[in-house]
Design a protein that fits this description.
It is a single chain. The protein is mainly alpha-helical. The chain has 19 helices and two strands. The protein has a two-stranded antiparallel ribbon. The relative contact order is 0.14.
């Protein structure tokens, strides 16, 4: 699998001539092994709890995910022995986030697991620093991202075929879960939405063929629908609207796609209104829907919890993103609980900085992909946790940061070579006063 082609697109895509106004920055020679590092980071952020066809001890799964992180860091270090890194506000802010994480975790209010999670986050951030050497604004890491999560979804589809009952259990209301590797419906929905969004943008930018894009989008969309994940669906739609909107002025393909999408969405909303409402409600009553399936009650209890000044400022330490034994399911409240107000400020700065840089960049396919990822993460943060710890959401933002990085050629200061002219001997011997 080649990590460096600029036109190949998705697996099986043929080269196409791009008539879009943007041009992709030239590759800086990214080693093929960088793809392995990125995949190992993705493996580390997968789930570790849930029922599978073959019962796997949670400790064994956690050993596999942590082993993947150690391997990712070691391989990245081996590829970048000279420790060449590129300036990155995103990774710098993540590094600062380690400060409140360590300070709060030292109190051990949530146990020794907090220090272990700090160590994990440190390795995760360190690996991103090592990879930043190859962040050059190209689409290389976008292809890594799509291939990695498409492989994960392949395991989900295989589990569905092997054991439909395990893949769509009653305790989840018949929603799709991972039957070979423990994955929850929101996780599968997240991976599906990100893959679909990025593939659509690559298709609009003519970086892949329609057949190759359909091979990715169609089965992935089916899996997304089977998860009944509202957050992922809304994030996908709004993220694509913003991303395609950034291309409308410079891309005729984006204008056509946007027009047809609005027309088809309007017709579908009228014709399939009842079916869409049933899918969206997931059999819940209005009260359960209004309090976001019980999330609002957990949020109210968390905010009402008495806290000391240090706990408000630094949090109580990295935990499992739960409060009172129930999942928090909100990135901002999870960060406030674990890393305090300092953590909230730093996470907000990450979103604001990435969004600001994206808005300042000229229209391009890379900018559109970054806008989609930032928008999706920002929308999902309301009902999903993960922005304060090693998670797929931070990996999505890291991808956005790689897309917004300036090409390496533009950052090097070179001294032009000036041809020496012949100087008369009399002039060379003359004293300059």
């Amino acid at each position: 699998m080649d990590a460096t082609p600029m036109r190949g697109g998705l697996p099986g895509a043929a080269d196409t001539t791009d008539t879009h106004t943007d041009t992709e920055p030239p590759s800086t020679g990214t080693p093929k092994a960088v793809w392995i590092v990125w995949a190992l980071l993705g493996l580390n952020t997968l789930g570790s709890a849930g029922k599978t066809i073959v019962t796997l001890p949670r400790s064994l799964i956690q050993m596999a995910t942590m082993g993947a992180l150690f391997a990712a860091f070691a391989l990245a270090l081996l590829l970048n022995l000279r420790l060449r890194i590129r300036p990155s506000a995103f990774v710098f802010l993540l590094t600062l986030l380690l400060v409140p994480s360590v300070i709060s975790s030292m109190h051990l209010e949530v146990g020794l697991g907090a220090l272990f999670r700090c160590f994990r986050l440190t390795l995760f951030v360190g690996t991103l620093w090592l990879l930043s050497r190859w962040w050059d604004g190209s689409l290389t890491f976008v292809r890594y991202h799509i291939r990695m999560y498409f492989a994960v979804l392949g395991s989900v589809a295989a589990g569905l075929v092997i054991s439909p009952g395990t893949a769509m259990p009653e305790y989840y209301g018949g929603r799709l879960v991972g039957a070979l590797w423990p994955l929850t419906p929101p996780q599968i929905g997240q991976y599906s939405a990100v893959i679909i969004g990025l593939t659509v943008l690559l298709l609009l930018g003519r970086r892949t063929t329609g057949a190759s894009a359909a091979l990715i989008i169609v089965p992935t969309f089916v899996l997304l629908a089977m998860t009944h994940t509202r957050t992922a669906t809304i994030g996908l739609l709004l993220g694509l609207v913003l991303a395609i909107g950034s291309l409308i002025l410079t891309s005729a393909a984006a204008r056509r796609f946007f027009t047809w999408s609005v027309l088809c969405a309007t017709v579908a909303a009228v014709v399939f209104a009842s079916a869409l409402q049933t899918w969206f409600m997931r059999g819940q009553d209005k009260e359960s829907f209004s309090n976001l399936t019980g999330r609002a009650k957990v949020w109210d209890a968390l905010l009402a919890e008495p806290r000391s000044v240090p706990e408000k400022v630094f949090g109580v330490g990295l935990g499992d993103k739960s409060f009172g034994g129930l999942p928090i399911d909100n990135s901002w409240l999870a960060v406030y609980n674990e890393q305090g107000l300092i953590g909230v400020v730093l996470v907000a700065a990450i979103i604001i900085v990435l969004g600001g840089v994206a808005l300042l960049r000229p229209p391009s396919l890379q900018r559109a992909c970054a806008i989609f990822l930032i928008s999706y993460v920002a929308i999902s943060s309301y009902t999903e946790a993960g922005l304060g710890d090693a998670s797929p959401y931070l990996l999505h933002l890291a991808l956005a940061a790689s897309l917004l990085a300036a090409p390496a050629e533009a950052t090097l200061l070179t001294t032009p070579t000036v041809a020496r002219r012949g100087i008369p001997r009399r002039a060379r011997n003359r004293e300059v006063t």
